[in-house]
Amino acid sequence: MSLKEKISEELLLEEEVVTQNEIVLYNDDVNTFDHVIDTLIYACDHTAEQAEQCSLIVHYNGKCTVKTGEFDDLKPRCSMLLEAGLSAEIV
């Protein structure tokens, strides 16, 4: 095995592990569909279609993962959801 092949093989074995967190949105009896949809568009950068689908999933299943990513990106987004009166948490 040549030195070039050995170095290439070592590089292929290195892998960065990134922890993915999720914002989970929970159903409530207070907020309207329009408010939830508008808030998801604003806080999570959803399209109108994505936000509508998530609002329906939350309504029928009781909860839905609305955003995944690194904790530092999700924390301010979850705070926006909470400030808008929605029930959400980062898991």
UniProtKB/TrEMBL annotation:
<protein>
    <submittedName>
        <fullName>ATP-dependent Clp protease adaptor ClpS</fullName>
    </submittedName>
</protein>
<dbReference type="Pfam" id="PF02617">
    <property type="entry name" value="ClpS"/>
</dbReference>
<keyword id="KW-0645">Protease</keyword>
<dbReference type="GO" id="GO:0008233">
    <property type="term" value="F:peptidase activity"/>
</dbReference>
<dbReference type="InterPro" id="IPR014719">
    <property type="entry name" value="Ribosomal_bL12_C/ClpS-like"/>
</dbReference>
<dbReference type="GO" id="GO:0030163">
    <property type="term" value="P:protein catabolic process"/>
</dbReference>
<keyword id="KW-0378">Hydrolase</keyword>
<dbReference type="InterPro" id="IPR003769">
    <property type="entry name" value="ClpS_core"/>
</dbReference>
<dbReference type="GO" id="GO:0006508">
    <property type="term" value="P:proteolysis"/>
</dbReference>
<feature type="domain" description="Adaptor protein ClpS core">
    <location>
        <begin position="22"/>
        <end position="83"/>
    </location>
</feature>
